[in-house]
Amino acid sequence: MGLNHVYLTEAFLGRKSNSPSIEKLSFTQFPNVGLMTTYAADSYITDSASAITAMAAGRKTNDGVINMDPALKFKYKSVAEEARDLGYKVGVLTSVSIDHATPAGMYAHQPSRNNYYAIALELFESNFDYFGGGGFLQPQGKDGKQKDVYEIAKEKGYKIVDKIEDFLKLRKGDNKIVAINPILDSSKALPYAINRLRGANVGLSLADFTKKAIELLDNPNGFFIMVEGGKIDWAAHANDAGSVIYDVLDFNEAIKVALEFYKKRPFETVIIVTADHETGGLSIGYAGTRYEVYLDVLSRQKISYDEFTKVVNEYKSKVKREEAKLSDLLPQIKEYYGLEILSSEVRKELENRAKAGDKEAKIRLQLALNESEIEELEKAFKISMMDPKERPNDAKTYLLYGGYDPLTMTVTRILNQKAGISWTSYSHTGAPVPVYAIGTGSYIFNGYYDNTDLYKKLMSLIGKDPYKDNVLSSAEVRELVFSK
Amino acid sequence: MGLNHVYLTEAFLGRKSNSPSIEKLSFTQFPNVGLMTTYAADSYITDSASAITAMAAGRKTNDGVINMDPALKFKYKSVAEEARDLGYKVGVLTSVSIDHATPAGMYAHQPSRNNYYAIALELFESNFDYFGGGGFLQPQGKDGKQKDVYEIAKEKGYKIVDKIEDFLKLRKGDNKIVAINPILDSSKALPYAINRLRGANVGLSLADFTKKAIELLDNPNGFFIMVEGGKIDWAAHANDAGSVIYDVLDFNEAIKVALEFYKKRPFETVIIVTADHETGGLSIGYAGTRYEVYLDVLSRQKISYDEFTKVVNEYKSKVKREEAKLSDLLPQIKEYYGLEILSSEVRKELENRAKAGDKEAKIRLQLALNESEIEELEKAFKISMMDPKERPNDAKTYLLYGGYDPLTMTVTRILNQKAGISWTSYSHTGAPVPVYAIGTGSYIFNGYYDNTDLYKKLMSLIGKDPYKDNVLSSAEVRELVFSK
Staple partner for B270: which of A41, B382, B426, B439, CB 3.0–4.6 Å? Predict the structure, then answer.
């Protein structure tokens, strides 16, 4: 969640005024603002594993590594583990899978973020009080032959709650809970929030999990909660601005829940909102639209890229390859993105209405597909209809579609560019990220610092020496299980 | 100068270590850091005129307008004029022409930033003490028939100093000076700093003008100086990362001069470093290089885009169109950018050396032109060799070259992308910009605020009511001359 992801959301909310303005989010109104560098030990562009190691354990490591040094010799104790050992109750929440790099950075120590099963085993060793959000990626290991995490949970005294009625029954005093959204996508993550716009049931929200976390964890010794809006990053990987906006808004709702608690206990609470890195190289500003921005067109998007890809694949599965034609999907492209081909009569009528000041007519004209865009869609459609094995695999194709469904990416790019929004990458970028903080001692988050400094600041807030060595000694280390 | 322009420069300086690190600039070490929104009254993407109006006069206006309201009915008094009327000495410095939008925002009030002659007339009415940097764009008006600014200067008691020996003779007590760099580019701006790398004489630097400003303006009543590193923006418009870096470094040198003064008078000085907007949608991160960044390749660039365009045009003027071939320019492309076509023998040798850890060999391999890049260069070269009138004028061509010389833009883009750097626009973008501040009262620049708030903060620092109406009454307004 880079600076522009936050700002785009604020501008999107503010777009309804007659002149450009922004509507601030809950956390951008926090009194303290910092800027944080994010580079890893082996690249100016960090991944989520090295980033969370820096923020949670104060050490630069290589991309892919969680709470270990680049040579994979030492394991580091995270600030969440320090908090646990000081008597705080600890919660870890995310909109992606609970074994993903960022939540794992709270409790795991692994040479590779992809050791999902080993990470899950560490989760159940953590003694943390509450986990919430997505599910497990390899519940029976990479080979599907290991002991199921549900069984392990039971052995370790954890309760996995994956039904909505059980979640609602959770009460203060319930402990060692792993609450999993009953509705998950294929990556065991919460569905994108934008899909609510078309009436999709996305289950519990990050705000729901956060509210429950505070209810369960509030106690006289204090609590430490990490809440990740992880799907903001995923949407940005796919360069899908609409999905970014609605997941930032969902994250904002979770922060609002935290703020309600803050208002009740302002002198005992600190809330820090930041990101592990920027994703996508997002800018409000595209060469083709120069100084113009049309955020209204984004309001027509009602689906996330992954769900639209399902629409494309469903069509593909139903039609004979030689009979497949783009025009069959144009109704869905209009329905979900507002993009359409205008007949010259309709165009004329809209132009007249637009001249008379009709805002809706202006938006529809801005959303009209031109010839070169239709060409791009046709080209992408052809590749989407191919078997994945047949698809071109060269550098130019990657630049266009980034490994995602070509038609989906083209629709998304056209919509973004019509809004005046553009991206430089399907990966993370090196941009420093903003830090917003409120509460007791939160002034220390002002200024310009490194992500390893965030650890020191967090340590000082939980009352631990920030310069204390946090290499786990063999006595301290529980039996850490490496991936099988 | 967006966040990424600053950070790219810091990463470029830090690249020499064995693992990624940054070397902080003078101003990024300031204790106070803020984030500032920049949108204009008529667009989420501001231009320099509306931006300086917001920062210097606290009002949102339309792009193109300087210190007037969007309806062009009122004129606003700038913070520099307020400072002057409070008895501060005032200096206005820039690396672009002294009548350009940002410096003009200190002393002019015009419906259009393009009224260069009218702006110059207002300059000589300002009674400011010292102007320094670039020259005048229309010294005899748009039609070349107006009274020369040199004559007007004399009448108004100003001395134009455009010889280096006269500049060096300037001493405390000299007043009403307009110091112009003896070496200017075709836009009356200081040449790009990067050209020093190939031994070009670029005359005085922004640091020289700043040093002189402090020498001339320091007095018991205080002084107010605005220093603009304006060519950072111009280089970013052309998506030329190398030129951005060296002009950020030159700007940094000017700030260092200010810091020397600050260190002598820490309790009487405030230094605020910010930008009017981001330009180019710069990211350290490009789809084609994913998580890799190769800043070393940028160190091979020794020329700015405008100077390389001169090389292209000189070649064009000397060769018959039908005999022009890209290979004639490959030696210069290698000399100025390090990009070259490697024979298979040389490539093999370099690969062996690279395997053995030879850093130079790695850089040369990264700089090697591949087939698709050579294709892009050939295509651009053909257009560069056309008469400007014959060149394609469609949207796709604009996306590729942004109205600049096609070959130059292609060389620059290839180099940037090989470094892992990418851009989204040839215009400004909507990104909030960082604010860095040091000195008495500078804590007020912490936080997240609008560019109109910057005016209020500046006013409070010079000791004026920030909420006072600053519409110029007819009695206050000197005879303001609109463009002829």
Answer: B439
